Amino acid sequence: MGIEIERKFLIVSDDWRQNAAGKHCRQGYIVNDHRRSVRVRVLGDKGYITIKGATHGITKPEYEVAISAVDATEMLDTLCTGGQIIKTRYFVDYCGFTWEIDVFEGENAGLIVAEIELETEDQKFEKPPWVGEEVSLDSRYKNVNLSRNPYCHWK
Length: 155
Known about the structure:
Elements: E1 3-11, E2 21-32, E3 36-43, E4 46-53, E5 59-67, H1 69-78, E6 81-94, E7 97-104, E8 112-118, E9 131-134, H2 143-146
Antiparallel strand pairs: 1-5, 1-8, 1-9, 2-3, 2-6, 3-4, 4-5, 6-7, 7-8
C-alpha cells in the first residue's frame, strides 16, 4: 500500500529562498470528498494523477502515477470540479531531508507552506530556522480543502 506521512508548517522568513529551485504547479480534483480524492497535477513539465484516502493523523494512503503533461492539462481543463490550486513548489535540502515549500497564487496568494515527508510518524528531523507553526492537523491547509475554501476567504 502506498502511504504518505507528511507534516506541514508555516514559513516565518524568506531565508529558505537561497538556492531554492522551483517548479510551477497547477492541480485540480476530479473526486473530492471526506473519504478520498483524485487529483490531477502538472508540475513543471510532468503530469500526475494521484489517489488519496482519508487522513488519519498525518498519515494517508496515497497512490501516484505519472502521466503526460498534455493529458493532465486536458483533465484539468475538462474533468476537474471546484477551484484549482496554482502555486510554485520549491525544493530545499536541509539536514538530510528535502523540504517542499509551496508559494500559492490566485485565491490562495499570500499563503506559503513548508512540507516534509517522513518514513514514520515519529521520525526525528531538525526544523529549519525559517519554519514556524506546525499546521499538519489543521485541515484548512490541505490542498484539497484550499481548492474548496481558498485562503482569501479565511477570516
